[in-house]
Design a protein that fits this description.
The longest helix has 26 residues, at 439-464. The radius of gyration is 25 Å and the shape is globular. It has a domain at 345-669. A five-stranded mixed beta sheet has the order 2-3-4-6-5. A five-stranded mixed beta sheet has the order 7-8-9-11-10. The mean pLDDT is 93. It is of the alpha/beta class. The protein is built from 25 helices and 18 strands. Its main location: cytoplasm. It comes from Saccharomyces paradoxus (Yeast). Belongs to the peptidase M49 family. Zn(2+) binds at residues 460, 465, 517. It catalyses: Release of an N-terminal dipeptide from a peptide comprising four or more residues, with broad specificity. Also acts on dipeptidyl 2-naphthylamides.
């Protein structure tokens, strides 16, 4: 159980834009940012409901305790102070993840403080432990769609929802297999259920499933809950009204509107206010489609909004909102609510613009024929942003969206690099030096880690996610020569492709996330040695370029080893797509290069620690070749839709061998706490000006930031 405890002594960072970036905005831009931030935060409860059935009532409970205690916790003695600190560490991690499962790892975490102390806080706050958790939530929450009723009392919520850890249920996954998922309600949903709904419901009716949840009410009977302000179906031209029978003549399905109705109403209302301060007509039209999406539940309205978003080039205030990433839903098709509001960093954006301008040249260096690339590369918008607001279970360092394959193919996409996230994530803590980096490598690693990470994220997002063409059949033909398909890895024409209605996500399912993240990461490693790219990022001499490259390969090897924490040795299940990807790359360095000295592990004398030994003289030969081979396989399998061979190949590369599994206990024992981010709140003051409120980098500061949002 010890590995389930909340992080101890985790670093906290305030995402500060108050001094340097926010004052650069015009009054109109500040108000646009303000209302978009309000819309973002209004979706916070949606994220919690998607994580676990207990997350939202836990949120209500910890905010109620803090408010009723007026922030004054027991500190009368050493024991009370220790218990309070441990409690607040749990609270801070919960708020940082918007739920009681790690956003990076998908595993449940519990407080380090004693359960008796938690219940003592109830007594001090005068909260009846025998009352229902419903008494703590806002009066206008629509309880018909929430999961508070699963816990009859607050005591039960604490004992089961907060503190109970069961081996399988502490991981996100299909309930039918014993795991946890709040994307599903009712009877346990199975992989076969979701495969049936994907093929015979969503694909056949051309309805996008991202903004839904699944309620299984009978063995062959489902309700599809649609996130919308409207409590009734007002888009019957695209969504069937009433119960329908699928083509198997057995399964009954009905669309139920009004999931997250309160939050969708709030989001839409703030977007309407933001419309008054848009910079151009494209933004105004984009927000109108967003409003239509959140009010009616129309998935196509969100796609229309994303088309307009792609066309809104290099805005000063960048935003995106909706049900976006599908990593955490076990079948890989339902999206987590996510929203970004950020301010453009013009200096860093100039670097990325240069990378975009040379993108076609760099893509031509990748190890496959033109048949596997779009005939025309539409240069995307690629900006560096300073995050003001990010609502979601975790904040990435970079984003490449939209995820709609047809929009990416026909209109384009955008890349954003989140500068203040990059800077904070790469920052070493004086309390926690980087694990597994040898003493002789530490100076170069610490000096160039942040720089190398910025280069890698840039390549990953633009040239990684931005490259490639899925060989696809459309209703009006094919986007490749069907009679003479491209050659596959065996030198023969490929025989697989994406049929009408099939997408990357629907075809590869749960494996799509880690597979694609791996492909993008490997492209970053393949091009990291390119001196022209390094020059673009400001490294002009050979010594600094080589240092960035070496730090990058060290960083990837270390990340692959750290990934062992996110692999469950009993189930063989990976808990985080990026970490599964990075492990497979590290394993490729170690076991699939032509020289076994390229990457080795050196144990210390007591066998309780180890150091990474990477031969920098082999990076541009042995390292580059093994990366090239891995990349070619991943890309061809993805583009040709060869789910059978592609899945087999990637699963083999990301399978943990006994020798590497033996390192897992050491990795966990040396685990460093994950950084947590505190976000500002904005207000319109008596003079009709926007002001920002920032917070102390403490758990109490994190708590106050959420209380001030009045969620």
């Amino acid at each position: 159980m010890s590995h389930s405890f909340a992080d101890h002594d985790a670093p906290l960072s305030m995402l500060s834009v108050k001094t340097e970036y926010f004052p650069q905005l015009t009054e109109k831009e500040q108000k646009y940012a303000h209302f978009m931030s309000k819309a973002s935060h209004a979706g916070s409860r949606v994220v919690m409901r998607q994580v676990s059935h207990e997350s939202e009532p836990i949120f209500d409970l910890i905010l109620a305790i803090h408010a009723k205690l007026n922030g004054k916790y027991p500190e009368d003695g050493t024991t009370e102070k220790q218990q309070t600190d441990l409690y607040l560490e749990y609270v801070s991690q919960f708020l940082s993840n918007l739920g009681n499962f790690k956003s990076f790892g998908d595993t449940k975490f519990i407080p380090r403080c004693e359960v008796e102390f938690f219940k003592q806080l109830l007594d001090l706050a005068k909260i009846d432990p025998c009352s229902s958790p419903l008494t703590l939530s806002p009066a206008d929450v629509n309880h018909e769609f929430t999961s508070h009723h699963l816990f009859s009392t607050i005591n039960e919520l604490i004992d089961i929802g907060i503190y109970r850890v069961e081996e399988k249920a502490a991981l996100l996954g299909f309930p039918s297999q014993g795991y946890t998922s709040a994307y599903y309600l009712g009877l346990p949903v199975t992989p076969d259920d979701m495969a049936l709904l994907k093929e015979q419901l969503f694909a056949e009716l051309a309805i996008l499933p991202e903004n839904t949840r699944i309620n299984k009410v009978g063995e062959k009977c489902f309700q599809i809950w649609v996130a919308s302000e409207n409590m009734k179906n007002k888009i019957t031209e695209s969504y069937p009204d009433g119960q329908i029978t699928l083509s198997d003549d057995i399964t009954k399905v009905e669309f139920i509107f009004g999931d997250h109705s309160r939050e969708m109403r709030l989001v839409a209302s703030y977007l309407k206010e933001a419309q008054k301060f848009t910079a151009n007509d494209t933004q105004k039209a984009m927000l109108q489609e967003y409003i239509n999406h959140f009010v009616t539940g129309s998935s196509q309205a969100h796609k229309e909004a994303q088309k307009l978003w792609v066309k809104d080039i290099s805005p000063v205030i960048e935003t995106n909102i909706g049900f976006i990433e599908t990593y955490r839903e076990p079948s890989g098709i339902i999206g987590e609510f996510e929203s970004l509001v950020a301010i453009q960093n013009r200096e860093r954006t100039a670097k990325f613009s240069s990378l975009v301008n040379n993108a076609e040249e760099f893509i031509s260096l990748l190890p496959w024929s033109k048949d596997y690339e779009k005939p025309i590369f539409n240069p995307p918008d690629f900006t560096s942003l300073e995050v003001l607001t990010f609502t979601g279970s975790g904040i990435p360092a970079g984003i490449n969206i939209p995820n709609y394959d047809d929009v990416r193919l026909k209109i384009g996409f955008k890349n954003v690099s989140l500068g203040n996230i990059l800077s904070a994530a790469a920052k070493s803590s004086s309390k926690h030096p980087p694990s597994f980096i040898s003493q002789e490598d530490r100076s170069i690693f610490e000096k160039y880690q942040s720089d190398s990470f910025e280069v890698q994220v840039g390549i990953h997002e633009l040239l990684g996610h931005g490259s490639g063409k899925l060989l696809t059949e459309f209703t009006d033909g094919f986007n490749f020569d069907k009679d003479h398909p491209p050659l596959g890895l065996d030198g023969k024409p490929v025989s697989t492709y994406y049929k009408v209605g099939e997408t990357w996500g629907s075809k590869f399912g749960q494996l799509a996330g880690p597979f694609e993240e791996c492909r993008a990461e490997v492209i970053a490693m393949f091009l990291l040695t390119n001196r022209k790219i390094l020059d673009i990022f400001g490294f002009h001499d050979v010594e600094s370029q080589d240092s960035v490259v070496y730090a990058g390969f060290l960083q990837m090897a270390r990340a692959g080893l750290l990934a062992l924490e996110y692999w469950n040795p009993k189930t063989g299940k990976w808990g985080q797509p990026h970490m599964q990807a990075r492990f497979s790359i590290m394993k490729t360095f170690m076991k699939h290069s032509t020289n076994k000295n390229f990457l080795k592990i050196e144990m210390n004398g007591s066998k309780d620690d180890f150091a990474i030994k990477l031969d920098k003289s082999l990076i541009k030969t042995v390292g580059h070749e093994c990366v090239k081979d891995y990349l070619k396989h991943l890309h061809v399998y993805k583009c040709s839709g060869d789910v059978e061979q592609g899945s087999k190949y990637f699963i083999d590369r990301s399978t943990v061998t006994p020798d590497l599994a033996s390192l897992r206990d050491i990795v966990i024992s040396k685990r460093l706490p994950r950084r947590q981010f505190i976000q500002a709140n904005s207000y319109i003051d008596d003079d009709n000006k926007v002001t920002l409120k920032e917070y102390d980098e403490t758990p109490e500061g994190m708590l106050q930031s959420f209380l001030d949002r009045e969620l």
